[in-house]
Amino acid sequence: MLTRRDAARLLTGTGAMLVAARTARADTKAEIDAGVHAALNSLRRMERVEPLVRASIAQLIFPRILSGGFIVGGQFGEGALVRNNAIESYYKIGGVSVGLLAGAQTAGLAMLFMREDALAALRRNDGWQIGTGPSVVAFDLGAQANATSTTMSEAVYAVTFGQQGLMASLSLDGTRITPFTPSS
Fold it and tell me: Per-residue pLDDT tens for 111-126?
């Protein structure tokens, strides 16, 4: 008979396996580029996001982040930093979280950098742990306030998009973003 404790261990292991399976096969440069450009074009067509994209000095786009777990979970994704409509560098995002969570999902994340000092924090020390350094205002497309040039005062805006699956949200606290070189 399967006990609750055994079920919890099984689901925790399943979440970890989802993230491990995703990391085992990294996307190629061409796959990342295509996903980043498609996501950025889509964000530019969103009425409430377009003013932020237009005002930002750079955009860090993760087209697909896989999250999964039960009590203990993890997330992983690959993306690129876009500046002046050109991909400048590539980044991985990953993290582990503990708490009241269960399920699996994929979602996209756009981090819109409004100031040079915030962008410098990303580039410093071979990566950036969200929650340290510049402030990040996170909101999803279902709950966004209208953005105008007078309301855009934060260093970085994080916008989630394209959520699919059965998990409450994409967690950013403690998430680490690190540079990497994708395969060709």
Answer: 999 999 999 988 886 7
| Of residues 118, 120, 103, the one with CA closest to residue 163 | 103
* Residue 57 forms part of a structural domain: yes
Q: What rounded mean pLDDT belongs to the chain?
A: 77
Residue 20 lies in a domain: yes
**Which letter does DSSP use for residue 125 in this model?**
G
Looking at the structure of the chain, the number of domains it has is 1
60: left (phi over 0), alpha (psi -120 to 50) or beta: beta
Does the pTM exceed 0.85?
no
Question: Tokens representing 118?
Answer: 């915030």
83 or 72: which leads in pLDDT: 83
Query: CA 116, CA 80: separation in Å to the nearest integer?
Result: 17
DSSP 142-174: GGPPPP-TTT--SSEEEEEEEEEES-S----TT
Parallel, antiparallel or unpaired: strands 58-83 and 86-113 = antiparallel
Q: Has residue 164 been placed in a domain? A: yes
The amino acid at 35: G
Q: Which domain holds residue 20?
A: 4-179
Q: Parallel, antiparallel, or unpaired for β 128-129 and 176-179?
A: antiparallel
Q: Is a pLDDT exceeding 60 seen at residue 43?
A: yes
- Residue 184 included in any domain: no
CA angle 177/181/184 to nearest 5° reads 140
